[in-house]
Amino acid sequence: MTAILYGSPAPGLTEIPPGATQVSPLVVGSQDLAALADASVDQAVILGPGAVLERDYVLAQALRVLAPGARLLVFAPKDKGGSRLKKALESFGCTVVEDARKHHRFCSVKRPVQLTGVAEAIAAGGPRIVPGLDAWSQPGVFSWDRLDPGSARLIAALPTLSGHGADLGCGVGLLAQKVLTSPAVTSLACLDIDRRAVACAEHNLNDPRATIRWADVRQWDDSLVGLDFVVMNPPFHDGGTEDRDLGVAFVRTAARMLRRGGVCWLVANRHLPYEAALAAAFESATVRDDAGGYKIIEARK
Ligand SMILES: C[S@@+](CC[C@H](N)C(=O)[O-])C[C@H]1O[C@@H](n2cnc3c(N)ncnc32)[C@H](O)[C@@H]1O
User: Fold this and answer.
1) CATH of residue 262
2) Distance of CA 100 from the midpoint of ligand 1 (Å)
3) Please, which residues bridge with residue 107 across strands?
4) From its phi and psi, is residue 137 left (phi > 0), alpha (psi between -120 and 50) or beta?
5) Which of 37, 70, 165, 199 is most buried per CB count within 10 Å?
6) Do 178 and 264 reside in the same domain of the chain?
7) Is the CB of 248 inside a 6 Å radius of any atom of ligand 1?
8) Res 240: pLDDT
9) Among residues 63, 91, 125, which one ends one of the domains?
10) Are residues 150 and 295 in the same domain?
11) Where in the sequence is the domain holding 108, given as residue range(s)?
């Protein structure tokens, strides 16, 4: 029996089929759902994403890879898309049994022989060149169809960088594109935890100086050291919940990567208190811009 799991449900929330293959793009090393063959899976358990295009893409891919008659369980917190799951599944031609517990909605279906709208949902949620960005992106990646205002501020504030550097949490690579406009940059390692973002960055950063890695900055193995610079717009959400430790982990990893005197340029929402982490890991940290709810910080090791 082949079973797949999408996402990391809280322990005890539901039964996970033993040996299920993880297919969430946010788990480094997971299998890509889009690469699985039609009707090749016997069971799927999915923690449904909240955003519509991303959710419908995942549901459509799951229905595509399930064999007719195979079981699909989809669930989500009631206030994060759970109450809309039944309708979404019905729109693909499924008959849904719905259940509510532990603030979640659970929808159970048997994959029907005839599906409707699956190809359309896969096309609408798949990777493509987004005209407004002029870059590859995909629903579900950070700020997928517009340049994030914080990143825009950092791009505007960046000086001309040089030497070896890294972009932590590179997303689809828009900040990295700006860094690589400097001919004095000799290498740029771009890291992100999201496989979809990494795949788009591969298209968007077609430059021999750029290397793109699918990696969790919190578990970085210290294989990059002695860098001249780091740029980053650190995340502060993990699985939709604010997690300030995530940004702090980015600050610490950036400091470990830099040589003495190396510089880290970062943008942070004004309310995020990175000062203590910066003071502990860097020799100095200077606010270079503070406007529109964002701080641009230059930290020197
Ligand atoms: C605020 S976005 C910035 C994206 C991009 N640099 C930009 O400016 O548009 C933060 C990025 O960090 C990534 N991320 C979140 N947690 C991560 C982790 N633990 N390790 C690596 N990347 C992570 C997210 O997938 C997201 O692309």
Assistant:
1) 3.40.50.150
2) 32
3) 74, 98
4) beta
5) 165
6) yes
7) no
8) 67
9) 125
10) yes
11) 3-125
210-264: per-residue pLDDT in tens? 999 999 999 988 889 999 999 999 998 776 677 888 999 999 999 999 999 999 9
Tokens for 141, please give them.
Answer: 């990646």
| DSSP letter (8 states) at residue 33 | G
Are 3 and 20 spatial neighbours (Cβ–Cβ below 8 Å)? yes
Q: What is the pLDDT of residue 1?
A: 65
**294 plus 145 within the same structural domain:** yes
- Length of the chain in terms of residues written: 301
Residues 169 and 267 in one domain: yes
Euclidean distance between CA atoms 166 and 195, whole angstroms: 18
pTM over 0.85: yes
Question: What DSSP designation does 7 have?
Answer: S
Residue nearest to atom 11 of ligand 1 (CA): 169
For residues 204 and 195, what is the distance between their CA atoms, to the nearest angstrom? Answer: 14
Tokens read off for 130: 């987004």
Q: Is 24 in the pocket of ligand 1 (CB under 6 A)?
A: no
67 and 43: one domain? yes
Residues 193 and 47 in one domain: no
Measured by CA distance, the residue closest to atom 14 of ligand 1 is 169
Residue 140 neighbours by CB under 8 Å, 6+ apart: 25, 49, 51, 53, 54, 57, 125, 194, 196
